[in-house]
Structures are given as structure tokens and as C-alpha cells.
Amino acid sequence: MRWNELQNETCPVARGLSVVGDRWTLLVLRDCFRGLRRFEELHESLGITRHVLSDRLKGLEAAGVLERRQYSDAPPRHEYRLTDKGRDLYPVLIALIRWGETHQPRADVPDFTFRDRHTGAVIEPVLTDRRTGREIDPRQVSASREDTG
């Protein structure tokens, strides 16, 4: 089964993977969150073929995760900006960064430090329950589909 064939599955994890399940797609998003917007910037950062990058950008645009905006008329040039839908993927990347640093560490590379952009204070992102503010522990959570009608 191809990634895009997962979009009609009943499982939301499968549907999400239909958009971001490819390794290059997540790395494109990582760079977009780092502020890279132009094709050449992304190409240089990622070191992938132009064809693969173009394909991933088109897919993210088609999925509504990125929006392509023209910034030059002569010659026509575009940049890629995260949409609200794209920005909603930030917690996924934060979780993946933390998981990678914990379970796939490299002694020669320092861990990321997350800081509040306004205050500069160090922050420690965690997944929490909006209602209680408690950190979510998978050993204490169950998930089910419930009919709300």
C-alpha cells in the first residue's frame, strides 16, 4: 500500500501518515519550522534531489500543510509557508525531537534547548491534558471511539 492510499483509512494515525509518513516530508517540515521558505534554501539544507524536494513540496501544498506564495515576478519565484494545518504539526516534531534525543542520542551533538521567543526562558515541552494540565502518561490513558450523538 502506498502512503497516499492511507488517507481513507479509519485509523487517524494511518491518515496522518498519508501526509507526513515519508522521511523527507518530515525533514522538509522541520526546515519550514526553522524558518526556511524558499526552494533553494530547502534544497541546500536537505541535500536531496530537486525532483524529490519538488514532489514533497507539491504533496504538502496539496494536503494544505504548506501554502506557496510568489515573492518575485521576474523570474517568478515562490516560497512555502506553513498554514494553520501545518503549524498544528509542531507538537509532533517536538515529540520526535525529544524521542530521538532520549532513545537515539549522539554524544557528539548537544541536545536542543527550547526557549520562549519573548522571554528567552528555557521551556520543557510535554504533552498535557488541556482540562487538568497533567502530563499525559500512556500507561494511564485509554483511547476509544465514542458516539457523541
UniProtKB/TrEMBL annotation:
Gene3D superfamilies: Winged helix-like DNA-binding domain superfamily/Winged helix DNA-binding domain (1.10.10.10). SUPFAM superfamilies: Winged helix' DNA-binding domain (SSF46785). Keywords: DNA-binding, Transcription, Transcription regulation. One of its GO terms (molecular function) is DNA binding. InterPro entries: HTH_HxlR (IPR002577), WH-like_DNA-bd_sf (IPR036388), WH_DNA-bd_sf (IPR036390). Residues 11-108 form the HTH hxlR-type domain. Pfam families: HxlR (PF01638). This is Transcriptional regulator. It comes from Pseudooceanicola nanhaiensis.
